[in-house]
Structure formats: structure tokens, C-alpha cells
Amino acid sequence: MIKFVPEPHLLDSPRGRDWPRLPAPPVAGRETRPPATAEVVVVGAGPAGLAVTSALWHHGVRDVVVIDRDGRPCGRFFDRIDRLGQRVLRSPYEHHPGVEGYRDCELVDFARLHWARLTPVERREIRMSQAGHRSVVPVDVFEAYCAHLAASHHVGEKTWRGEVREVLPAADAVTVHAGAFTVTARHVVLCLGEERRPAPDSWWGGGPTPPGTSYWDEPAPDGGRQIVVGAGLTAAHLITNALSAGREVHWVLRDPGERYQCADVNSTFFRPEGRKRFDSVGWADRLALMNQFRRASIMFEFQPLLRQAEADGRLVVYRGETVARIATGVGGTVTVRLASGRRIAADHAVLALGTAPSIGDGLLPAELVGERDGWPALDERTLVFERAPRVSAVGAATAMVLGPAARNIDGHRVATTRAAAAIAAAVREESPVRTLREAVGV
């Protein structure tokens, strides 16, 4: 197997370039609440929500309300990326939230259209992509592409800020409660993404993190010695940022060594033939495969940077170590005690413990989620909840149907293809019978 080993300078793609944008209808001055009814409500406006809403537009389903805690398409997705200072995505050019089968502008097409704005390195990556090789996508290009999709499919004007608290299916409709407003729809799609994985209560006794300790997606102080706990790409960004700022870094990872690879390189489950292989095995085998292929990994570009820092003594790595306790002492010093008995003292500790898929529990009644081993019960053809057939899932929650690819941006597109077609067919079948307003008595 030929490994994809790009050079470190790929991490230096510019951020914040001025991209031509399609005109989008202004949302300022509109009603503060969405319509009380809609054909479809999409919960979450990240890449999965963008893909679903765009696909429904192509299917002719235009009466859609998107509810998102940030209130803008992919806003939280890029905020989290920028907090890490991430400049390139681990997904290749062929992985994007564009709609399959409708001749939409794809990500590589969009990049080629703006060739003059790209660096020589970025242009070389596009040539590699066109030659069939895996290539690296700049975050700046991907964000501009998502803005293009949102504008061309009218996603922004359908998106409303709200914190969804409850999703209640009934026979003819689904009611979505979002704090200040409620929307009733024929169908709901949960595009909930993933949330950070919390530290075990035993590390400090539960509750808020101790002073001087934070999670990777929270603000952290500048300067001083830093401890990073975690083994994946997020940890690599945190470490690189701290080293660039001249800080001494101590890195704790429970595996015996770093995994400098990218799951996307492994085509075992990220191509149609791989997903078909995943389909052919039973639940126990799928669960084992998910546990194996969900391990944290680091992009190859970081390997020379981190190994050189370790050789220079600027980075101290504790391989095969687990955290037993985190405490803050006099003067604000943070002490991390490892299971081996070793202690690390620093000015700040950052936890990058990975993420866990949001499967709809806490929104849907637990009995409708049908949770099993941490995954929802979904129809494999349509991705609807087996016990709530008017509610679908797209994104990481579909992993026990689509395999590890479900957590990937291209996995969102594959899931969307199934879910959007099924929803559109149901809407066409239901519409002539009676309007939604008649069905719910509005």
C-alpha cells in the first residue's frame, strides 16, 4: 500500500481570502421566528444540514426550516476549526457536501474556478486530485464553497437561530420545540453532528473543570507551560500552536505511539465497495469495526514538526499513559497525575479527548431512539428512526448503517442521498391528500 505523505508546508494555506459570492437575500429585518409549519425541519446547519437542505431543494421540497444553535450555515463548524488555527481539512477534494446526481458545482470545480486566488501549493493539490490522487483541501476554499452552496440553494434564508429542546413525533406530523418558538413539520431530519467527549468524573470529582484546565473548544490563556491530553488531530493542532508561541508542551496519549495517518486514506470503508462490505456483516461485527476505525489519528503533515520538537526538548511525550487525576494547586499550577504515578505540572491543561456522535437522545423520547450500544435504531434504506418514521438522521449518528464514513463529510452526502429522496417521495405522496395546516389543525 502506498502511503500518502504530504509535506508540512501544506499546513500553511491562507485564511480569510476574499472570495466572490453569489447574491443572497438579506435576512435582516425578517420575522424573529420561523413559520409555525413547514414540510421539513432540519435540525443543525453544519455540513450535514447544508447537504440535506440543498438536496431537498433539488427534489423540489422548498418549504424547509433549518434550526441551528449558531443561526448560520456551517457557522459553528468553522468557528471550531478556527479556534484550533486549522488551515487544511483531512478530507480530500472528492469529499464535500454538494448534491449527487444534479450536476451541482463540486468542490474541485469551485476551486478551479478561483484558480488565480490559490497558492502554487494549493494548485498542485488540485492537479493531484484530478489525477486521482488524494489531495489536501484548504479550509478557506471549503468555507467559500459552503457559502456558495448555501447561497445557490437558499439555505441561509431558511436558517433560524434556536436551541432545539424537544422533538415529538405524532402520526401525521412532528413538533419541534426550540425554546422561543415551535415548528410543526411533516418530517424532521436530525443533523446533530458530534459533541466533545467529557473527561471521566474521577479526574477531578465531576462538575466543572478545575481552574487552569479547559477543553479544546474553549478559550485558553496564552503563555506558560502547557499539557495536552489526547491523541488525535485536535491535539496535534493544540501542540503545534503552543510550540509556535514558544511554549513548552507536555503531551499525554494513552496509545503506545502516535498514529500518523488519516482514516480517509483507508478506502476499506470510505468507498462504495467498502460501504457494501460493511453492509454485509452483522451488528456485532459492525460494532467491532467501528471501535477499530474510530481511533484518533493525526495527519501526516504533523509528523516532521512534532518529531523535531520532541528531539529538541520542546515537546515531552508520555506514550501509553492515562490520566488518573487533575488538580489545581497554590498559585494556579495544574498538576496531572498519571496512572503510572508520574506527575506533570504546568500553567494550563487542555483536554482533547475526541467527540461522541449525537444520536437524538435528549431530543426524541428514549423509547423512539431505540439506543443500542450507543447507536440509534435506523432503517438502513431511508435512515428514518425505526420507531419514529417521520424523523431521519444524517451525519455521525448513521455510522452503524454506513460505517466509519458516516462521520466524514462525504458520508453526510451519502446519507443525504438516501434520506432526501425518501423524504421527497413521502412529501409528494402526502401533499395531495391534505395540507399540513389541516393535518395539525393550524
TrEMBL record:
Segments of this protein annotated with the region Disordered: 15-34
Cited SUPFAM superfamilies: FAD/NAD(P)-binding domain
Domain of life: Bacteria
One Pfam entry name: NAD_binding_8
Lineage: Bacteria, Bacillati, Actinomycetota, Actinomycetes, Pseudonocardiales
Name the record gives this protein: FAD/NAD(P)-binding domain-containing protein
